[in-house]
Amino acid sequence: MPATSAQETHAFIEQLGRLGIEKDSEKRLALLRGVADLYLTRTVSPTLAEEYLFSEIANAVMRKLQPHQRPQVSAVLSDSERVPHSLALALASDADIAVASPILSRSPVLTEGDIITLAQASSDEHLQAIATRPTLTSRVTDVLIDRGSNTVLRTVSGNAGAEFSEKGMLSLVTRARDDDELSLALADRGDLSPAVVDQLNALICARVSTEAEGGDASDAVAGLRARAQALIAEELRKRKANINSTERIIAAVEAGTMPLDDGLGPLLAGGRLLDVSQVLAHFLRFDRNFVFQQMATGEINTIVLAFRALDISYAHLETTLALRARKRRGGQAGQSVSRQDYEAINAADAQRAMRFLKVRMTVGKAPPAESAA
Known about the structure:
The protein has helices at residues 3-21, 25-41, 48-64, 70-77, 85-92, 97-106, 112-121, 124-130, 138-147, 150-157, 166-175, 180-187, 194-214, 219-255, 260-269, 273-284, 288-297, 300-309, 314-327, 339-344, 347-364. It contains 21 helices and no strands. It is mainly alpha-helical.
């Protein structure tokens, strides 16, 4: 064992020993945070024995901390991939939402199966935390829609990284009948299917008609509702038009009457990231929702390889990354790739990478409960 690793192991074990016998609450908290820092930042991966010891002692110490101290530990552990699975589960299922929330909303350790199990048994506050995760599969959002309050539904509907089944989307439309804010959140989504668009549009039209007949005690309230409903109807109209124009572009590219680069141009000029994702998904033979999630919140390398695999121009890649940065409201806004680096990627290698990703995703779906949420 290298000297540095040996020193780290010795320091880690020594700190664990001190933590196990410390009686003072404040000192316990400081020691636990120090041990967690050693565990998470080591230059080598912890052994199974070290992982077990850390998990057991951390769980025991957490039970002895003061209520106001416990969330501090959860926050420190929330973003690390090294947190033992058993510890992450224990924190995520904690009855105190201040402890559970950082893990539920951010931890990469929790699997899709974990998230579903937690969502099926947790409080609405816990569901609200889950609804903010960077990415959510349709299996998870189905549970959130089934069990969550309208507050949870508004949050998950506004989450660009959330994927919805057709059943889930239609359930959201049903729940939106008496919730203007939820209707607006749905109308703002780019991934509504034509069937969902039609149902949401019918819902809005019916509501406008009913309120026009029944009147309203407050002219101001009636005016605000009418404005909100008009905005929703306009967004739905645009979405339906965008779906139709995107389908025409795909058909033209397939027929050989339009180069792919020419087809993407107007979509990018209009800021239509979802429709760009639809075109890419079609020609890469990927699921549209997966491609949209990658475009909105995924790794930049995946986007670069996808564009190179389809021989899309660097100018379009640059525009796409700028659009993605704006939509992410500053999150990782500085991510970019130079023209030289992009054009140095061999298109055949990029195509192989896309095929490998597709195979890996297919394998990862069996069994579904083990997929990452």
